[in-house]
Automatic annotation (TrEMBL):
<dbReference type="InterPro" id="IPR018047">
    <property type="entry name" value="Ammonium_transpt_CS"/>
</dbReference>
<dbReference type="GO" id="GO:0005886">
    <property type="term" value="C:plasma membrane"/>
</dbReference>
<feature type="transmembrane region" description="Helical">
    <location>
        <begin position="23"/>
        <end position="45"/>
    </location>
</feature>
<protein>
    <recommendedName>
        <fullName>Ammonium transporter</fullName>
    </recommendedName>
</protein>
<feature type="transmembrane region" description="Helical">
    <location>
        <begin position="174"/>
        <end position="198"/>
    </location>
</feature>
<feature type="transmembrane region" description="Helical">
    <location>
        <begin position="210"/>
        <end position="230"/>
    </location>
</feature>
<dbReference type="InterPro" id="IPR024041">
    <property type="entry name" value="NH4_transpt_AmtB-like_dom"/>
</dbReference>
<keyword id="KW-0472">Membrane</keyword>
<feature type="transmembrane region" description="Helical">
    <location>
        <begin position="236"/>
        <end position="261"/>
    </location>
</feature>
<keyword id="KW-0812">Transmembrane</keyword>
<dbReference type="InterPro" id="IPR002229">
    <property type="entry name" value="RhesusRHD"/>
</dbReference>
<feature type="transmembrane region" description="Helical">
    <location>
        <begin position="273"/>
        <end position="291"/>
    </location>
</feature>
<dbReference type="InterPro" id="IPR001905">
    <property type="entry name" value="Ammonium_transpt"/>
</dbReference>
<dbReference type="InterPro" id="IPR029020">
    <property type="entry name" value="Ammonium/urea_transptr"/>
</dbReference>
<feature type="transmembrane region" description="Helical">
    <location>
        <begin position="141"/>
        <end position="162"/>
    </location>
</feature>
<feature type="transmembrane region" description="Helical">
    <location>
        <begin position="105"/>
        <end position="129"/>
    </location>
</feature>
<keyword id="KW-1133">Transmembrane helix</keyword>
Length: 482
């Protein structure tokens, strides 16, 4: 029996298609998507104070959905399409069947696969920003903020660093999977937006215990395991480079988690589960720009550094620098993403292996993609210094871009809808803002009214280590004495 013409095998298997690469890329994209939905939804929902669990989860869910509409509507091609200016692409739809079935600009798979893979990266970025704004941002303002920031900030960073026509790409910047494009940008934008939105209520800022620690851990586990696709998929092939990236990712993360945990134990006398989560995140973020272009021993060193320096800035410097204390960054996105992403970008400039970089970038130019350490070793010191300079230039560009665009966007939104919830909404949380609560008796919607039951969720019942994450204005010695 003859197949209909539109079902002929060669129609779905063009010459350029590598089915293994395509399958891996779609699987990797799904893993990254699971980091957001449900990963960050339940991570935020569990880590937030009980009265903000619904709001925190819904902010993440909304961001994921609205970014997809923007992505296929205009912003994918602003990031990976034709050149408009040196740092930005032309806006255009990514909906045409012919366009989506053509070969992607990177990899042996259709453009549709690339659109989906890059979407999940684009979607997780504003969700990370939301981690700095939980507990006080007006949801209407968030609805405006996400598409505006995505369009006028994320696309510029992605085009400049990842698009072959981008000015930083042409210079030879190394950002394997988004240390700058995703984590540095989200950390800086989150911190900037938190400045404009203002702090949580005094009560929330001083007492912000997780409402469900096990749910928080489940979300954190999805983040960790989902990073297999985050960094492994960045090679755009089911290759040895993907395998190296995956191994480096998990090794660095484990070392960072253990380092943070050891520091908590040594200085505060108690191992903290929230500290372990923080160390996990900083390790994941730090290795991201380097995952497929460094050796495993370098990933271990990066894990130690990503466990130590963000720990010091969060647990010590944060309480000594007035400006850091004055900005209420709810989940410490500045320390875990902006700082860890910067460290990753700089350490990539130090440890990047020239051979691995040339495989990844398919670049014969021996004056590009040379880590400073290898430049010193092989007598190409100038090339190594140049690479480090490019990494610092890219870091500076992303920081300035996000401070400027985030500030302008927040100021414009504030002319339309308040950035901040009113006092009643800040006091009551989900019950007033959404008319819903995270925990109720199943079936009849009744709330727990028994004060004995409510006492189970009282912040005083939680281990004191959990209060460290709420960024209370205490000195490290006071924290240790709690």
């Amino acid at each position: 029996m003859e197949l209909p013409k539109n079902l002929l095998p060669d129609e779905g298997s063009p010459d350029f298609l590598n089915k293994g690469d395509n399958a891996w890329q779609l699987a990797a994209a799904t893993l990254v998507g699971l980091q957001s939905v449900p990963g960050l939804i339940i991570f935020y929902g569990g880590m937030a104070k009980k009265k903000w669990a619904i709001n925190s989860a819904l902010m993440a869910l909304y961001a994921f959905a609205v970014v997809l509409v923007c992505w296929v509507g205009w912003s994918y091609r602003m990031s990976f399409g034709e050149k408009l200016v040196a740092f930005w692409g032309k806006p255009s739809v990514a909906l045409d069947e012919k366009y989506l079935l053509e070969q992607a600009f990177l990899g042996y798979f259709p453009t549709a696969t690339m659109v989906f893979f890059q979407f999940v990266f684009a979607a997780i970025t504003p969700i990370l920003i939301g981690g700095a704004l939980l507990g006080r941002m007006h949801f209407g303002a968030w609805m405006f903020f996400v598409p505006l920031w995505h369009t006028f900030s994320y696309t510029i960073g992605a085009y400049s660093i990842w698009n072959p026509n981008g000015w930083l790409f042409k210079l030879g910047i190394i950002d394997f999977a988004g240390g700058f494009v995703i984590h540095l940008s989200s950390g800086v934008a989150g911190f900037t937006a938190a400045y404009w939105v203002g702090p949580r209520t005094t009560n929330d800022k001083e007492r912000f215990p997780p409402n469900n620690v096990l749910m928080m851990l489940a979300g954190g586990g999805l983040l960790w395991m989902g990073w297999t696709g985050f960094n492994g998929g960045a090679s755009y092939a089911a290759s040895g480079l993907a395998s190296l990236a995956v191994l480096n990712t998990h090794v660095c993360t484990a070392v960072s988690l253990l380092t943070w945990l050891a520091l908590d134990y040594c200085f505060f006398g108690k191992p903290s589960i929230i500290g372990a989560m923080q160390g996990m995140i900083t390790g994941l973020v730090c290795i991201t720009p380097a995952a497929g272009v460094v050796q495993c021993w370098a990933a271990i060193l990066m894990g130690v550094i990503s466990g130590c320096i963000p720990w010091f800035t969060m647990m010590v410097l944060h309480y000594r620098i007035k400006f850091l204390r004055s900005v209420d960054d709810t989940f410490a996105v500045f320390h875990t993403h902006a700082l860890a992403g910067s460290l990753g970008g700089i350490l990539t400039g130090l440890f990047a292996v020239p051979k691995l970089c040339r495989i990844f970038y398919n670049a014969p130019d021996w004056e590009k993609y040379i880590g400073l350490g290898y430049g010193l070793q092989t007598g190409r010191t100038w090339a190594g210094l140049r690479q480090m300079g490019i990494q610092l230039l890219g870091m500076g560009f992303i920081i300035c871009l996000n401070i400027f665009t985030t500030t302008i966007i927040c100021m414009l939104i504030n002319l339309i809808v308040p950035l901040r919830l009113n006092e009643e909404e800040l006091e009551m949380g989900d019950e007033v803002v959404h008319g819903e609560e995270a925990y109720a008796l199943w079936g009849d919607g009744d709330r727990f009214e028994n004060p004995k039951v409510n006492s189970v969720y009282d912040a005083d019942e939680y281990p004191s280590a959990m209060s460290k994450f709420s960024m209370v204005s205490k000195t490290p010695s006071e924290l240790q004495m709690v």
